Amino acid sequence: MRNIGLIIYWVICSYLIVDLVLLNDWVMFFDPQSIAIVFFPTLAAIFIQPKKAISQRLNTSFKVCWFSGGLMFIYGVILTLQGASGDSQAVLTGLSVALIPIIYCFIISLLYAPYVLSKDKAHIKSSKK
Known about the structure:
Elements: H1 2-23, H2 32-46, H3 54-83, H4 88-98, H5 100-116
Helix pairs in contact: 1-5, 2-3, 2-5, 3-4, 3-5
């Protein structure tokens, strides 16, 4: 029964993510530098400690996701404020671009939620042999 719930959760999350991205122009949500800074460290964090259980590795990866997304957000805000010369439109545009890595973090968090935020992690098998 748990697997059916998990499949339903993944289908609903996938629908929501695709719907949000396609609601407006999808190119608006595409920032290669933000993708690299958020996704690569998040994926790499899964493989840092191969001897630990997968639930611990996903938890570490979840935290790294928010650290890297926060770092990229702060970097974007600094660049926006540094380049703004009193033009409010430029500041608002820069802040909207700076928020893109936070959107990526929320998407990853939405997908990780059943594995990281669950008190009962019995559905995640240990990778120990």
